[in-house]
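Handoff note, outgoing to incoming analyst
You'll be picking up this chain. Sequence as last confirmed:
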Amino acid sequence: MECGVLHRQIQEEPVIQIDKEALRRIQLIQLEMLIEVDRICRICGIRYQIIAGTMLGAIRHGGYIPWDDDADVALLRSEYEKFRKACLTELDTSRFYFQDHRNTPGYRWGYGKLRRKDSLFLREYQEHMPYEQGIFIDIFPLDGTPDMYPVRVLHNLKCFCVRKTLWSAVGRFSEPKLFVRLLYRFLSGIPEEWALRRYEKLIVRSNRKRTTHVRILMFPTPNRTYGYKRSWYENSTPVMFENHMFQGIQAYEEYLTFKFGDYMILPPESKRKVHPVSALVVPKGEK
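Most recent structure output, in case you need it:
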């Protein structure tokens, strides 16, 4: 199918407006997955943390940020690999499945997703991606980033180039600016296998030695530090989230201030957004 025809078809898919009731059902399904991650990690002695908006929600709201429609977990690379392996034997496959680029053809993101079976969360402009897209939580691996700042900047540029090449499969449709959309269309011609090999080489190079900072290689960092303190992910504390106890970042005040600034102040309503979706199926959660 020609790109232009596919682009028109994708644009014509109506975007679903997720109301409060549907959003809460999505959150409760994601909570099931967070509980499953915690269960597996406890059984297998794997260290993890809830991060980003999930950690912020735990501290500021005691659970989900009211308008949030995702959940985030992070593990240092060695722990992430243990978790991937543990999913082969410990994951409740009657309800969940785990995806990353090594077990899911066509999956182009440099981090994993745990998804709920018998569900659908079809992101706008990702309708054409060739894999199952159930309701999910993100499982992020953290890799080293160079200690010397100039080298870290170069490292970030390499991450940026690989990430944008992988994102081009979506960006060629979603980007509103014509020039950038055409650039993504050009990048989408680069074989996926080539980009993923570059990502795998980045993983190896990023973990040759212990560094003071880490990052998600295929995800942008919030500022020009281009990394997070490794110690944040080495020291955990129990955190209450939706009446369940999970592992969070012990130095959460420092971490949340770094990532969000004055994190106790609510953002304006114009920035309280959920992911646009064109199809949604939410199974009944467990009681």
